[in-house]
UniProtKB/TrEMBL annotation:
<keyword id="KW-1133">Transmembrane helix</keyword>
<feature type="transmembrane region" description="Helical">
    <location>
        <begin position="135"/>
        <end position="160"/>
    </location>
</feature>
<keyword id="KW-0813">Transport</keyword>
<feature type="transmembrane region" description="Helical">
    <location>
        <begin position="387"/>
        <end position="405"/>
    </location>
</feature>
<dbReference type="GO" id="GO:0005886">
    <property type="term" value="C:plasma membrane"/>
</dbReference>
<keyword id="KW-0812">Transmembrane</keyword>
<feature type="transmembrane region" description="Helical">
    <location>
        <begin position="26"/>
        <end position="50"/>
    </location>
</feature>
<feature type="transmembrane region" description="Helical">
    <location>
        <begin position="70"/>
        <end position="96"/>
    </location>
</feature>
<feature type="transmembrane region" description="Helical">
    <location>
        <begin position="472"/>
        <end position="495"/>
    </location>
</feature>
<feature type="transmembrane region" description="Helical">
    <location>
        <begin position="283"/>
        <end position="305"/>
    </location>
</feature>
<dbReference type="GO" id="GO:0055085">
    <property type="term" value="P:transmembrane transport"/>
</dbReference>
<dbReference type="InterPro" id="IPR035906">
    <property type="entry name" value="MetI-like_sf"/>
</dbReference>
<protein>
    <submittedName>
        <fullName>Thiamine transport system permease protein</fullName>
    </submittedName>
</protein>
<keyword id="KW-0472">Membrane</keyword>
<comment type="similarity">
    <text>Belongs to the binding-protein-dependent transport system permease family.</text>
</comment>
<keyword id="KW-0997">Cell inner membrane</keyword>
<dbReference type="InterPro" id="IPR000515">
    <property type="entry name" value="MetI-like"/>
</dbReference>
Length: 552
């Protein structure tokens, strides 16, 4: 018996077994790679070809307006990133190092702005500053992304060995000097990774800029939308998409490098330091974090107040009006029908994204553990490729669908599945990022033991991987659901007039005059925000059991 077990273990460790595992991983990769090719690579390549073939790129590159748009896009994204990092660091410290009652609630509250639909964030800030402007856009984008900094940096900060900082203090360094000379260098990889992701989100921000900038302040993202929808300038829009794509790829490369350094820093940690009550000057950091949390809640409260206030006083007319179609029939369906469309579309998108994302995560784990260097390199390339949709403009992708998918049998552009496909493309990278660390952390010996006892690969997954990753999968599904529920960029291109989602309906209501339309928009935002907050609480509770260092 012992000899049989030893022989089975030897077979598991043999190159032949490794090649078989790699081949199985590559076979599973067919569906994720095929999905990425059809619904991402093809539309993006078509946009690039359109820009070159019709001379749009040459024209756009020599237009001063293009570079003004690019400069404003980069400037507002950089300013928003700086504000988000400065605001997120005190919150990261609170989450990582402070032991106080209510920190768990803070962890959930910080997550809420990130999962709020951009159209809701835009309207919330419009309720505070009706005039909009650059300052408001920067604050709104920073508000949207503080959670990225707090959770990413806090995840690594919680695992740094505190003894090095204590040793610096014992040698006479002030608290500030110990932080800048010991702790800050260790946190820089996580800060750089978070900053790259925030910059990416701010550079491709659509709903916030559209709501607060209007026709006065435009980024590449909103200009692509306006040229396509209002001006029908497809070649010009394609050229701008190409300029934006180059900037996005550069940001993704910076973020990937920073993430690798962050993971290295996490592996080099000495031990996990438990949180403790703040001492002395640390209370100032806690106070700063409390101030940031107060600022994060202000737009949310303003939106709720605005949803029940009219010129004549407090009223629930906006909520009652959701049963109708707005003033002068602004919508083709009622507000409640739009909400049902959102729920149905988000469900379809989440189910599809879970299938694609889980398969991709399983493949990436298999390729990373392969003894063959070529397979590991293939895994790294695939990992980077699956992340690309997270950074490429949703408006560009939606525009690409209009250009390409009509060439398929049945013309998918008129299919009700088109919006779920577009939303799934946005969700898949998020699901992979949430599930992949958990699957990588599972001890390979557990899989080998199950295989030694005769379990098939499918049964190993069902009996070993699935129970250990169940909470993470549930959190990923919930997180993906709220992202799909609030997706606005691609959906605004693709949703049919007779089947708008709730964010698209909100955008239509805001763009039309009339107090009733505005009241309906704010009421719909309040309901969408309530659903988002509830799901965010569930996500955070599930994620707490599977917290990974430095993973958002």
């Amino acid at each position: 018996m012992d000899q049989a077990v030893a022989r089975a273990r030897g077979e598991l460790a043999s190159p032949r077994r490794g090649r078989a595992s790699t081949a199985g991983g590559l076979a599973l990769a067919v569906l994720p790679v095929g999905f990425l090719t059809l619904f991402f690579a093809w539309p993006v390549v078509a946009i690039i070809r359109l820009g070159f073939s019709e001379g749009g790129v040459d024209t756009a590159l020599f237009e001063s307006q293009t570079w003004r748009l690019a400069a404003f896009t980069v400037a507002q994204a950089a300013a928003s990133t700086a504000v988000a990092v400065l605001a997120g660091l005190p919150v990261a410290y609170l989450l990582a190092r402070v032991k106080l009652r209510g920190v768990g609630v803070v962890r959930t509250l910080v997550l809420v702005p990130f999962v709020l639909p951009t159209v809701v964030v835009g309207l919330a800030f419009k309720a505070l500053w009706p005039g909009g402007g650059v300052f408001t856009i920067v604050l709104a984008n920073a508000f949207f992304n503080v959670a990225v900094v707090a959770r990413t940096v806090g995840g690594l900060w919680a695992h740094l060995d505190r003894r090095a900082e204590d040793a610096a203090r014992a040698l006479g360094a002030s608290r500030g000097r110990a932080f800048t000379s010991v702790t800050l260098p260790a946190l820089l990889p996580a800060i750089a990774s978070a900053a790259a992701v925030v910059f990416l989100f701010c550079a491709t921000s659509f709903g916030v800029v559209l709501m607060l900038g209007g026709s006065r302040l435009r980024t590449l993202e909103t200009e692509i939308y306006l040229r396509t929808v209002n001006l029908l300038d497809l070649s010009g829009a394609a050229a701008l998409s190409l300029v934006q794509l180059a900037a996005v790829v550069a940001a993704l490369l910076v973020g990937a490098g920073a993430r690798r350094r962050k993971e290295t820093a996490a592996r080099l940690r000495a031990r996990t330091e438990t949180a403790r009550r703040p001492e002395g000057g640390e209370w100032w950091v806690v106070a700063a974090a409390a101030g940031v949390l107060g600022l994060l809640l202000t737009p949310i409260v303003a939106l709720l107040v605005r949803s029940v206030s009219t010129r004549e006083g407090w009223s629930l007319d906006g909520y009652r009006a959701l049963a109708g179609q707005g003033a002068d029939g602004t919508l083709n369906v009622s507000g409640w029908d739009a909400a049902v469309n959102s729920l149905r579309t988000a469900t379809d998108a989440t189910m599809l994204a879970l299938i694609i994302g889980i398969l991709a995560a399983v493949v990436l784990v298999s390729l990373r553990r392969s003894p063959q260097r070529g397979a590991r390199v293939t895994g790294e390339v695939m990992d980077a490729a699956m992340m690309l949709p997270l950074g490429v403009s949703a408006v560009t992708i939606g525009f690409g669908y209009l250009v390409t998918l009509g060439q398929l049998p049945g013309d998918l552009r008129t299919s009700p599945l088109l919006v779920p496909f577009a939303q799934a493309l946005v969700i898949v990278p998020l699901i992979i990022r949430m599930v992949l660390p958990v699957l990588r952390s599972i001890d390979e010996r557990l899989r080998q033991a199950a295989a030694t006892l005769g379990a098939s690969p499918a049964r190993v997954w069902r009996e070993v991987d699935l129970p250990l990753a169940a909470r993470s999968l549930a959190a990923a599904a919930a997180f993906g659901y709220v992202v799909a529920l609030g997706e606005f960029g691609a959906t605004s291109f693709l949703a049919r007039p007779d089947a708008p989602t709730l964010p698209v309906a909100i955008g239509s209501l805001v763009s039309r005059p009339g107090e009733l339309n505005n009241q309906m928009a704010y009421a719909a935002c309040a309901l969408l925000m309530l659903v988002t907050m509830l799901v965010a609480a569930v996500v955070d509770r599930l994620r707490a059991a599977n917290a990974q260092v430095g993973e958002f």
